[in-house]
Design goal:
It is a single chain. By secondary structure, the chain is mainly alpha-helical. Helix content is about 80%, strand content about 0%.
Amino acid sequence: RWTVQSADLWRRAPWAWAALIVAATALNTLIPQPLGADMLVDVPLLGGAFLLIRLLDHHGAFGWAPLRSMALDAWKDLWQLTRVTFVWMFFITILVSLIALTAQSAVHAVAPAGGFAGLLHHALRHAPVLLQNAFWQGLGMIGTASGPFTGPILFLTLYLGANTVYYLHIAYLACLKNLPVAATFMALAVSSPVLVKMLAVVLAVLVGDNAALLLTSLFMSAFCLWIATMGYLWSREMFEGTRENQPAKAKTVLRHALGGA
């Protein structure tokens, strides 16, 4: 059902989704992966996607005026969520890097350079830095978008305002009560990067290294936005009890709370 509803929402403004995919990929080229810097792009992009989804869900079509109104109402809360997430990821990244440094060095010392990993390394080594950034940042964004906590936290932040720690607790309870859905999101977060790397290797053989990384980065941006749409639909069903996309003329309390016309 969510797949059909996602396709319905995307069909209402395909050009807007195409523009968002290109914009996400372009921004990813500018952001290096280390120290949680990817959160400075991931959270605003996914928050913007949620605003667009909400707009299309309630209005039935894209409109600049309602989108601007929604964005003005939500930007402070979204910025606070971005800041908190970045600080968390900054220290978590340092901790994980310190723990994994010795093991990673040992693995690289004995790991062969051929095979699948060798092909991917070759493609990245000969690619421009911007394409390397886009590829690694895209992998990080997949993990962020597919996380089972992401959808509920973004949904509640844009609905009720910033309160990240409290929403983290609510998201945890939501996952406990919806274990199959949460497990599916987690499985996507774990497996998708591996599949994307395989796609990059196959495309590198077919179209060359640079084109392969560019196409793979665009695919990752589109995939993340689709996952965000699924997360929105899941959160809408949990917190609103709404199981179907609303018609274009529907008016709800939540719509007015988000600034819709």
